[in-house]
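Board notes, transcribed. Complex of a protein with N-carbamoyl-L-aspartate.
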Amino acid sequence: MSLQHLLSIADLEPGQLRALLDRAQELRPLALGGSTLRATLQGKTVCPLFFEASTRTRSSFMLAASRLGADVLPFDVANSSGKKGETAIDTMRTLEAMGVDCFVIRTAIDGELRALRDAAKPETRFINAGDGRSNHPTQGLLDMLTIRQHKGTDFSCLKVVIAGDILHSRVARSGLQALKILGCGEIRVCGPDSLMPDDGTLEGCKRVSRFDDAMAGADVVMMLRLQRERMEQGLVGSLESYFADYGLDTRRVALAAPDAIIMHPGPMNRGVEIADDVADGQQSVIFEQVSNGVAVRMAVLQAVFAA
Ligand code: NCD
């Protein structure tokens, strides 16, 4: 399995997507410590270049790279010459000139990632760690791995709900692409009209207005963070009314299948889109998603360096 870059789930063949998930599953025991694979990327340098805040994605990429034996350059954008006006492209080329082989990029600007890739040396690898509203392919992969671990590899019988702020969510876009490739039986989307994209993202999905109806008999529930930092004007009313209409509480969880799993990419707005007792409840797999993130990112790093 090899690919030079991972910019979007949509760039993957179905076989490549499945191979990455299979490899991540194999790597799972090594991902959380005791890696025996430290010779794999010896002599290679990986740099997380994050122009936007991150806890999970940046940390797990750094752990994944070091568990494969790469040198990791923990570049801190917030304290860099970016503050003096240096452009993102000049920043990337400066680090590339020091021998970075692979950039893991997060940016708030849709399209910036491809511009960085085009400005780099042809052999430099790029992995998307979230760009604007567009893509977050490794999150899509870790979400699919988590679903597979609980529900098996046949997605055709699954009813998956994606709820909340889909408009601003690169997690939802990558998740939807992956679910469609894997042949998910039914994808229900639910959220306020003001937070539903009208750009074709929801093609093939069932739009359900009432959250209670969306939850009925669901096997997998993917909650999304209300992304207030990306809202130019108030797209939702009060947080209390948002929770009343679209918040996941135990009453709504009880409407789903008894073995339904509850997912959230993090960071959570507790009490806004998800109640504490659901986030921390028996059916929550939210911290399993985080653990799977390390394994998935090891699989992706291996694949880009195999190219
Ligand atoms: C997400 C992101 O940054 O897109 N976080 C993550 O990577 N787990 C989701 C979010 O910010 O809401």
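The pocket of N-carbamoyl-L-aspartate is lined by residues 56-57, 130, 136, 139, 170-171, 225, 227, 265-266 (CB under 6 Å). Residues 66 and 259 are 36 Å apart (CA to CA).
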